[in-house]
Amino acid sequence: MRYAFTFAKVAPALLGIAGITPAGAYVDVDTDTLAIHFGPWSLTTPVANIAEATTTGPYHWWKAIGARLSLSDRGVTFGSTTTAGTCIAFHHPVPALDPFHLLRHPSATVTVTDPAALTAHLNRLVAAR
After folding, report:
1. Do 25 and 85 meet the contact criterion of CB atoms below 8 Å apart?
2. Which residues make Cβ contacts (< 8 Å) with residue 32, sequence separation at least 6?
3. Is the pLDDT of residue 10 over 70?
4. Which residues of 78-105 are buried (b: 16+ CB within 10 A; e: fewer)?
5. Is the pLDDT of residue 71 over 90?
6. Coil/strand/helix, residue 14
7. How far is CA 4 from CA 29, 48, 71, 129, in A?
């Protein structure tokens, strides 16, 4: 199933500078794989690596818009709105931001159009394992 990102009114202009467009920002989930695409950045991991998902937000714009690294916990955010998102925790940290895969993230937050639906979908997959 594909989940599109929600873009705040000013976000397309700002994010477009970094190559992040609505056509290139989405989350794909199937029974085996979670794949996040956010312009030039991506994250792929087996569904078995997902520990849990939670719906979060709202966020401050300076913490939510763009591809971001949390300095407090090394989590990654792929954000296009401040309204709400889904935070996905992993059993084993995954690469996403740096091209050499040296930095690994214990969680990823994505600001999709329907974060509650993505959260429920991921938690159903986790419970089925």
Report:
1. no
2. 46, 47
3. no
4. bbbbbebbbbbbbeebbbbbeeeeeeeb
5. no
6. helix
7. 12, 22, 26, 25
Which helix (H) or strand (E) segment is 12 a member of? helix 11-16
Residue 1 has pLDDT above 70, yes or no: yes
> Is 0.70 topped by the overall pTM?
yes
Work out the pLDDT band at 19, boundaries 50, 70, 90.
confident
Task: Tell me the residue type at 30.
Answer: D
Share of the chain above pLDDT 90, in %: 79
Neighbouring C-beta atoms of residue 41, cutoff 10 Å: 20
Nearest by Cα to 38 from 14, 17, 57, 66 = 66
Domains of the chain, each with CATH number or no CATH: 2-128 (2.30.29)
